[in-house]
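Worked example 2:
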Amino acid sequence: MKPYQLDFHVFVCLNERPEGHPRGCCKAKGAEEILVKFKQEIKKKGLNIKIRAQKAGCLDTCEKGPTVVIYPEGVWYGGVTVADVNEIVDSHLVAGKHVERLKF
C-alpha cells in the first residue's frame, strides 16, 4: 500500500492573544472563518485527498495576519480574508500561480 501523500498543506494561524495586545492576533481578525472556508473550498473542488487545511499556532507574524502558509513551498500570505480564499485555492493550489498581492 502506497503511503498517503499530500501535495499541499495549508496552515492558517489561529493564535489568540488577549484583547488589546499590541501585536494583535489572527483569531480576532477572522482566521477561524478563513480556515473553515479553505476546508469547504478544498472539499467542494474534490482536492481534499491531496490538500489539507488546518489550524496552526502562532506563526509569529501577528501584525501581518491573518497569516496563511502553504507547504511544501513555504509561501506565506498575510492580511488574508475569507474573500481571498477562492483566489488562493484556484490560483495557487490548482494552477500553481502564487497570489503575489498577499505574499510577504
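The chain has one domain: 8-102. Residues 12 and 68 are 5 Å apart (CA to CA).
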